[in-house]
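User:
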Amino acid sequence: MVQSRKFFKYKMDFVMTCNKKRAALATLGLISSLSANAIDPASVVSSGPIAVVPTIDIEVKHDDNLFITETNTDSSMITILRPSVQFVAERANDAYRVTFGIEDGDYANSSADNYTDYNLTAEAIIELNSRHRIDFNTGYLRGHEARGSTNSTTGDVPSEYTENNIGFVYRYGAEGAIANIELTGSFLDHSYDNFISINESRERENTRFGGTFFYRVAPKTSGLFEVRYEDIDYDLATSTLDNIETKYLLGVKWDATAKTSGTAKFGRMEKKYDSPARKGQGGASWEVAARWSPRTYSVFDLSATQEFEEASGNEDAVDSKLLSLSWMHSWNDRFSTTVALSRMDEEYSGISREDQTDSVTLAANYEIQRWMGVKLAYTGKERDSDLVGQSYDSKQVMLTLSLSF
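Assistant: Predicted structure:
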């Protein structure tokens, strides 16, 4: 049966190179946002070959700019409950996980913005042999868009949406082989459940395929070439936003020492619309994720990306560039802190608008028991926009209690 204490210490890694069962289970581990001391389960309920792990987060926060406005801001205390349950199983070198979660938000000063989101996901890691591995994932999400969080017209309550997705990753090549090939595919259906007259123009289906060729140039370093193709099809018959995105990237993936690891990709991205009424975009693209661990208890993460984001208002698309840096330090076995800085530059096509958003997050985590943790965090954001009325600043203070039963 699953070794629960170790299982809960691992984070998600979609490109797993080890073909051992423990690594397969690690890939299905929990993601703990801004937390170094991820809690362990108090116990793991076993039902034959299946482990059942329930958890809950209880968060209380204050937001001083609920609707992300430049003037006449509204503030509120918000209580958020996030219960979830996971069902985990293993067979030989394979691993499986099903997760059901709920997020319920209650606003003290704006009951119209209360929400309840649902999320159901299923994941499987199947190793056919030492050279063939397939990862499957599928999910259902009933979510919401907080008022002011998009460029779309808003109603008197948040917009609610449903997402269905399915995806796979197939990898050919043994661990340590000089060459490996990875093929990916995914499908996403995004639809709205209220304010249809406002939101139907944003309902869409995304179909993506990709392939990456890895070639080992050193014992722990590989060069790579990646191609991605995405067909974005809007449901509204009169929409002129249907488009195809392609991306071509060259890069390197390294895990040279215990202190440094990462992936860096650079290339070109293009977005071409089916309708001649829309002007296509293209330009340089990059994806960088690097980690430096000067000590086992101190970790720096650097991330830099460029992407085209789909329209949420009257723009064609948004050319988004994000740079972030975080530092996590464990001061002892129970106490850790995190500092995160980021800057996002957004250039809108189809309208005249450019935004720059800076954010800072400070967090302190304390593990009261191995199955109980508490986090105090502060997040500040400031957006400077050249479009009148779109600049803002906001501050949030959060206290979160995490429990595993």
